[in-house]
Amino acid sequence: MGITVQEALALDILNGFKVVAGRKGLSREINHVAVWDYETAELIEKNFSSEDFALSTLVAIRDDVGKLYEVVERMIAVGISCLAIKNVYFDHIPQEVLSLADKNQFPIMIFTGTFTEDVIVYVTKAINDKKRYDNLASIIDNIIYGDLNEAGIRKLALGINMNFKEKSIVAFCKKIERKTVDIRSFSEKEMEEAFSRVILYKNGYLVINTFEKDQQKDIEKTFLRRLEWWGFDHKEYVIGIGSLYDNLGNLNKSIQESLYAFKYAEAYKKDISLFHELGINKMLLPILDNPWVIKYYNEMIEPLIAYDKNNETELLDTAVKYIENNGDIKATAEDLFQHGNTVRYRIDKISKVLYGNGKCEHFYEELAAAVRIYILKKGPL
Predict the structure, then answer these.
(1) Sheet arrangement for strand 204-211
(2) Contact, 12 vs 4, CB < 8 A?
(3) For labeling, which of 38, 267, 336, 351 is most exposed (least CB within 10 Å)?
């Protein structure tokens, strides 16, 4: 799997590349970079391949830009991903060509100054890095979901980095408010941190840090400093950190915990979350998709959503604030800008919606569990 046009545009080397048409095609995949010099007509089909990133100065049609329409038609037919034009001979594209590109979601870009050779080198490197990351991501999936014993997990881990040590801690870092990630290379830093590895994973970065036994006393603070050194500042990234494990064969647990901690941090709008500090959420996060949990959610939360929709009330929001404030009516009222009696009425109404006129012996505990499941399933508040 290569990179998308959008990911290519995020590279520093493509800074200044202006998309003039086909913006809806930025998710097209690029697997090769090719230069279009003099090929026209059937030579385009012969010399170019599907998923090419085509670069050109339009030298082949410098005396007649009108021929660009046919060229773009042929590129679209071949399956070329996009066309980047260096404005040596033309600084504008005919409107009919732009319309053709828009219709077929075929990105066309114009750029100035950047050397074509540099674009080839850096985009090709990004493609290769992405493929390497995809391979590593597949190994991570196997470690987490492959139902392996500790020996099998250790073997796969050493396949990621043969220098990994026994003690490990893992973080998952994702850029705030970004759907895509930069294709970054950490190879130079990893040379200095020979026992670690940064892996592109699930639109974020998985940071595996291993070290010798009993080497660090305050590993979490040390790990946070290393994350910043790698460029994962908590002001720019949401970070989830798994527990510390002494056996590399338990790497699957630390990886999964980092993902759970990240989900918690994202849901509760925190910069950094440590799995071992999540309390009851350590139990809830791994079972969110369990059918019995979903059934409980449907029985406790869906009736409140339906009631609010039909009656233009705010019972669910009240329930969330009530649980967040540990059942404190005064604090809940202040958060909702309501009188305390209004909050008491709403809590009583929540009980009636869920249990009718009967009483629930463990009303608060059951509501608290349902609200926590709701927040974790819903994601960012």
Answers:
(1) 196-201, 204-211, 167-175, 237-241, 272-274
(2) no
(3) 38
Q: Which of 324-333's residues contact partners 24+ apart within 8 Å by CB, and which partners? A: 327/364
Contact between 366 and 372 under an 8 Å Cβ cutoff? The reply is: no
Q: Which residues contact 107 (CB under 8 A, 6 or more apart)?
A: 5, 19, 21, 22, 23, 25, 26, 28, 81, 82, 83, 101
| Two domains, one topology: 3-122 and 288-378 | no
Q: Are 106 and 14 in contact (CB under 8 A)?
A: no
Fold exhibited by the domain 288-378? Arc Repressor Mutant, subunit A (1.10.10)
Fold classification of 3-122 is 3.40.1390
Q: Tell me, what amino acid is at 179? A: K
Q: What pLDDT is recorded for position 284?
A: 93
Q: Where are the domains of the chain?
A: 3-122, 148-284, 288-378
Contact call for residues 141 and 202 (beta carbons, < 8 A):
no
Q: Map residue 102 onto helix, strand or coil.
A: helix
pLDDT digits (tens, 9 = 90+) for 141-161: 999 999 999 999 999 999 999
Residue closest to 186 by CA, chosen among 199, 195, 175: 199
Burial 5-21 (b: 16+ CB within 10 A, else e): bbbbbbbebbeebebbb
Give the rounded distance of the alpha carbon of 261 from its chain centre.
Answer: 15
Helices (H) and strands (E) in the chain, counts: 16, 12
Residue with tokens 């202006």: 18
Query: pTM for this structure?
Result: 0.75
| CATH number for the domain running over 148-284 | 3.30.70
Rounded CA separation 205/201 (Å)? 5
Lowest pLDDT segment from 118-127, 183-192, 254-263, 315-324: 183-192
Pairing of strands 167-175, 237-241: antiparallel
Helix, strand, coil share (%) of the chain residues, nearest 5: 55, 15, 30
DSSP state of 276: G
Query: Would you state the structure tokens that stand for residue 350, as one six-digit string?
Result: 């929540």
Q: Which residues of 37-81 form beta strands (DSSP E)?
A: 52-56
